Structure formats: structure tokens, C-alpha cells
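Feature request, filed as a ticket because there's no other form

It would be nice if the structure record came with a short human-readable summary line next to the C-alpha cells. Right now we just get the raw output. Example of a typical job, pasted below so the devs can see what we mean:
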Amino acid sequence: MNDADLRQQCHTVLPGHRQATPAQTFAAMAAWCEANGVGHDTYGEGALIQEFERKVAGLLGCEAATFCITGTMTQVTALRLACAERGSRLVALHPTAHIFRHERGNHQLLDHFQALQIGDQHRPWTLDELRAIPDRLGAAAIEIPAREIGGQCPSWQELDEIKDHCRSHNIHLHMDGARLWEAAAGYGRTPQEIAAGFDSVYVSLYKGIGGLGGAMLAGRADFVATAQEWFRRQGGNVVHRTPYVVAAAMQFDARLAAMPDYFRRTEWLYEQLRGLPQLVPNPARPQANMLHLHLPVSRERANEVRNRIAAEHGVWLFNRANHGALAGHSVVELYVGDNLLTLADARLREILALWAAALSAP
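Raw output as currently delivered:
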């Protein structure tokens, strides 16, 4: 039995939101479209998509926003255009940036820009590290929160200082805001306050929002218009974006409203983890409604424990384990969404104790 089938058989899933079946998702979309009189867009022209773009732009305090079919296309395009504007093809990226980790060298092979690594792979990069780069940068990107390091964010003061520095040194500051909505609760700030001072912002329509896919790029109106042309050049001009927009728009407000609840649940989870040394959270305190758990067993053993608990108890603990920095250790991710929010406190404590005991067993 593969992982997807095993997870499907579990009655309790810890990470993320409840997963509806395709039939349930499409039925909900159809009902929402019927109730709201939704018609198809044609190549991005249509009331629903354009209203949604304006809504996202307003939430971020930007002049404009535009839909793009993938975040991968969105970000390299934004950074390419930023470099062209600034006259330098150099972009500063954290070692764990999505562009490095998951995009198969697209920025190099498609000749978008040249990337310089900045900062330590276990921490957000700092203003001092930006200042230490002797080259003239076209752009710098910050992921807020940074998924590959457990959802860490720069401090509010550090972020303000980075914004000021980039503004005064003509460096385009781009935000990888795939999980920006999650970071807002951790900062205790609105998305607009976080986005202020960034020249461009990418947000996902499916990660925390739960849509089918797609992304938005926000920024100056002329910058966004140029990006739209580049999306077309790269094959992103999908004839109907309606399914992606509907899937996100119909639950957008509810997801954003729930983010503070998810964060409070994350804070509660941290308190439960204090007495379980087998499950060590990173970061040390929650900064968004996600975290990494460092386990004292190998990746292979972590998966064995997960699969056994799934088979015997009907509980799915996590989706994927990665090798830890230390031999014989591993790291897993937990996204705190609807599943953990609605799980009874006593039951969650039982599951955590079961997990910790299994990790301690010979």
C-alpha cells in the first residue's frame, strides 16, 4: 500500500486541512458559481477574476495583482523583470529558497537571472549579510515564513531595516509570500503591513487557502502589466482561469479569518510538546501555524513508525520525513490547519504520547 492509500484509510490526519474528494470539491464549486452568477473568464478577462485580483491587491496594499498558473512561473518572472529594471542580473536568495530547492535550475537554464546565496541555511538572512555582498544587486527575495526552516521569519525590526536598505540602495525587494497569510498572525500584523516596503509580492492560492492551484503577483501596476505579458510568453495564458479562481475565492475569506485560530492552536501544541523530548520543535517558539519536528530516529525509522501507527490506530502523523543534519535523525513538517484545530485536546495529547513512545521503543 502506498502512502496516499494508507493516509486515505486513516480516520484522523494531523497536518493540514481536511481533504475533500474531487466530487465534493467540484460540487461545492458548482453551487458557489450558481449562487454568485459566475461566468467564465476568457484569457483572464472576466468579472470574477478581475475582482479577485483587485481584492488581493487591496489586501496587500499594492496597485495591482494578477493571476498566474503557478508560483514557479510567478517568482522567476518577477525577479527577471526586477533585474531588468535595476540593470543587474544578480538576485540574493536564501539557500533554502524554493527556486533553489524545487525548481530544477529554471532560473539558470531559462536565463532569467543569476542567483547568489545569502545567509545561513538554518536561519532567515539578515541585513548584515545583505550588506556583506559586494556586488550590485538587482533584487533580493525573502520567504515569509520560510518553509524549509520550519516557518521562521525575520524579526519585525530586522524586516523594517531590510526594507529601508533595499529602498535606499535601489534593490528590488521581492516577497515569496506563499504562506504570507499564515505569517500575519505570528507577527500580529496585517498582510498589508507586512507587504509594505516590498516591490513585489507572490501569494499562493492553494497552500493555506486550499484552492486547486495558481498564484497571484502583486506590485506596481506597470510592473504587473509587464509580468502578464511575460506569463503569456511562457505559456501561462490559460484560456479559462475560472476553476482556479473559484476554488480559492469561495473559501478565501473563511481561510483568512481562521488564521489566528490556527496560530493559537500552534501555540497550544508547543505547550504540549514541552514534555516530549522525542519531538523537538523548530523554531523554538511559533512564528506561523507551521513547524518542523526533529526526531531522534532515521528517516526510514520515522516512516516505519508513521505507517505502523496509521495501520494500527488509523492516525496519520505527517506527510514526509527528511534526513536530519545529524546521523540517525530526521525532520518532519506539521502544518496546523483544520485537522488539528478541530481535534479534541485529550485525543491530540494521546496521539502525541503514542508517537513519542513509538520513537523511544527499540
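Something like this underneath would help us a lot:
The chain has 15 helices and 13 strands.
The first strand starts at residue 12 and ends at 13.
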